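Morning!

This is the sequence you dropped in the shared folder:
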Amino acid sequence: MSYDPGALDAALAAAVGDDSALIADLRIAFMESAERQVDLLGRARCDANWQLAAWRLKGLAASFGLTALMAMADEAATTAPGDPRILRRLRAALSGIEQS
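The structure's back. Tokens below.
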């Protein structure tokens, strides 16, 4: 699955125009929220908590048009709580978005 880290910046620019300071602030807020959901996934020990964090991550990704992250969060919702494979993939995806 390929990632388009630029999609976040494009979505933010479409929402707020060319205000680079506001885009930077919103980008930070997005990353903090996404990282919080992945952290909650990592600590989830039951299906309900795992699915809730995955669905929140999916909704957050959908808000910014990050379809690859949406698909991965959707996949996470169907795996067992604590699945290390999907957690690694999600962390790598967020790292790629953060570095762009």
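Headline: Residues 6-99 form one domain.

More detail when I'm at my desk.
O.
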